[in-house]
Amino acid sequence: MGGALRPLIVVGAAVLLSLAAGWAVDRSLRRMDAKHPETPLWGLLRRCGVPLQVVILTAILRGGYHAGHLADDHAAGVGQLLVLVLIAASGWLVVRVAAAVTDSSYARYAATSRDVAKIRRLRTQLTLIQRVLTAIVAVIAVASMLFTFPAMRTVGASMLASAGIIGIVAGVAAQSTLGNLFAGLQIAFGDMVRIGDTVVVDGEWGLVEEITLTYLSVRTWDERRITMPVSYFTSKPFENWSRGDPRMTGTVLLHLDHATPMGLLRKRLFEILEETSEWDRRAWGLVVIDTTPTTIQVRALVTAKDSDDIFNLRCLVREQLIDWLRCEHPYALPRVSTATAPGHEEGQDRPAAPPPDAKDLGPGPGAR
């Protein structure tokens, strides 16, 4: 009876100790979070409670399963399984702690800084750093789990001996993947493009929604997602409307008649801008930039604080100017003239000249 109860006592004690340790750590973190509300790290570290409890539970069972005579017939197998779980849980805990630290750094900087460009740059860098760290921890954890098997230790020497050849072959085979990987790091620390930037790629306008080590996702204005390799942004030109100062200048082009009252049109443009919240009041203007035999080309210039406002402002100005011209000055809109040219009707009404007399023509060629 005692032999049957001993494993249960060991397992139960391990579970109770892990739960108690997790509760104590969570309570301490909650107290630190209430004491230092300006630092979100303590609250974010509470997300590490589950992997911490798994690590503690596995470590206690790994150290006490021999003493508790757990699975005497399969001692080696149980010990191997507990080691594998302990390595995986430790990697999980490291990733959670790293995520809490990076999220805390971003939250503190975003709360104190008003520079949107720098906030986006830090967010992009921390996101890629976190992904790189997660990949490194995963590789180390898998390698550690594999090397717990005796067979893998024996093969390890031969694998290391041929590492140079394997590295060359892998580098050639994964040239594209490695290129995207280094391009992702270049984007993160070169400040070329950031999460939240407004970009134009291949004629598509959108916002950078996600940046990983291998691809970049752009959300277009019509809610489509364009996924592109990050190497595209290091090898081809693209437009970044959020680079540096996000303020933008936009133009509205109108084709109008030569009789358009430019003074009144200019006054109406200013009235429209005064009534809109998108105009940042930096600059505006209305000029004739070109003329043709049938129309003139008028350019309205407006400014806004970012790309979203400049797009809405251009649409609003175009719509209201055309509506005002249609209601107040319809003659200013371009039209196709079908009237008869001046002087053409007079020429048609004039009587035709009579044919000349034969006597006025003189003698013919055969006259003598």
Highlighted features:
368 residues, Alpha-Beta Plaits, alpha+beta, three-stranded antiparallel beta sheet, elongated, five-stranded antiparallel beta sheet
Describe the 3D structure.
Helices cover 58% and strands 15% of the residues. With 368 residues, the protein is of the alpha+beta class. Among the domains are: 7-159, no CATH class; 248-332, Alpha-Beta Plaits (2-Layer Sandwich), CATH 3.30.70. The strands form 2 sheets. A 5-stranded antiparallel sheet has the order 4-3-2-1-5. It has a 3-stranded antiparallel sheet with strand order 6-8-7, with helices on one face. The longest helix is centred in the N-terminal third of the chain and has 38 residues, at 75-112. The relative contact order is 0.06.
Give a short synopsis of this structure.
The protein has 368 residues and is an alpha+beta fold. The chain has helices spanning 2-35, 41-45, 49-64, 75-112, 116-146, 150-161, 163-173, 175-190, 232-235, 262-274, 307-328, 344-349, 358-361; strands at residues 198-201, 204-211, 215-220, 225-229, 239-240, 248-256, 279-291, 296-304. The chain is elongated, with a radius of gyration of 39 Å.
